[in-house]
Amino acid sequence: MAEAAAPLKATRQGSVEPFTLVEGPEAWYAKDYRGRSDWVTVLSPTHIAELDAAVQGILRSGIDLRSQLHKVTREQFPLPTLGPVLDGVREEVRAGRGFALIRNFPVERYTRAEAIVGYWGLGLYWGKAVSNNKAGHMIGHIKDIGHDPNNPLTRLYATNAAQPYHNDSADIVSLLCLKAARSGGLSSFASSITVHNEILKRRPDLARVFAGDWYFDRKGEVPPGKKPFFAIPVFNYHEGYLSVNYSDNYYLLSQRHAEVPRLTKAHYEAMELFNQLARSDELRQDHMLQPGEIELLSNHTQLHTRAAFEDYDDVDQRRHLLRLWLAPAVDRPLPESYKEIYGGSVEVGNRGGIHVEGTEEHISLEAE
Ligand SMILES: [Fe+2]
């Protein structure tokens, strides 16, 4: 392998050249954050008072939360001192290290309606929210509602099964923990940019495989006129940016369609190396989400996973997270191939999410 012997060049997001090591805060290792808490923002009493006032303002207006909350704008949800903090968190996630945690969202004191309104309001400072599924849920409910994880059409967030390392279908994903599981459910995340760099160092031949087409199964969430699968590279070098898009269970599932080219030995080897790197002690950070914590991740530079869990018998005590998929108003350019997975658009500020025939955008207070 002549390529492996040549010294690898390093470039930064904004000026990334294909098949070079990407340098920057998003290309982190676990050791970089050991003992550090600068990625955690703790809401102060002043922040929470502002949040309370904005939530009550929306509730007093009497709007129907199911059909109208997702039309509320940032101007209708004023957060005088918290707002700039939320803007800073978004920038760190979008263009910095790629991950952040917020603590102290008052889930214990809030009713479900207050929690939903409050979380929607925070999201207004991070970007335009997009639909989480074919039902048009603008806030996703991550809860085991008894779906069979072995059914190919099941989205794993509606089960208690482990999820492999992947990223979601929007620029930013955020999760708010309402309830933790009785046991299990550990969240972990890793930098997909570091995974890219390590693959380049170890197996430059496989980096080329990742830059080729990978077939992705839509799990039955098929937009009008589209096939039930599409192709998108894992390593996307575009206008000076490296964006990584990876979900191995969707690649494996695509093999159920006769029209999809068969995965080769190189593809399987590539996935094995990718997963081994993502879950390694050197790359991975673990975090058990606690009620009131909000996690934010860039889907272009970070991967996430969660372990299987066991719930309490009482339905109301079961693990329950809320999810936002967000498109910030300012963000990196993405190649046309992302249109397939980004709701038909790669326009900055207006991309991502799942849109199929008859999708009606709404917000549900319960997992359904
Ligand atoms: Fe996910």
Automatic annotation (TrEMBL):
Gene3D superfamilies recorded: Clavaminate synthase-like
Record-level GO BP terms: antibiotic biosynthetic process
Superkingdom, natural source: Eukaryota
Single Gene Ontology MF annotation: oxidoreductase activity
Pfam families tied to this protein: TauD (PF02668)
Domain TauD/TfdA-like: 72-325
Record carries keyword Plastid: no
Keyword Oxidoreductase: yes
InterPro entries attached to this UniProt entry: AlphaKG_dependent_hydroxylases (IPR050411), TauD-like_sf (IPR042098), TauD/TfdA-like (IPR003819)
UniProt keyword terms in alphabetical order: Antibiotic biosynthesis, Oxidoreductase
PANTHER family: GAMMA-BUTYROBETAINE HYDROXYLASE-RELATED, TAUD_TFDA-LIKE DOMAIN-CONTAINING PROTEIN
This protein's name: TauD/TfdA-like domain-containing protein
Organism, scientific name: Monoraphidium neglectum
Organism placement in taxonomy: Eukaryota, Viridiplantae, Chlorophyta, core chlorophytes, Chlorophyceae
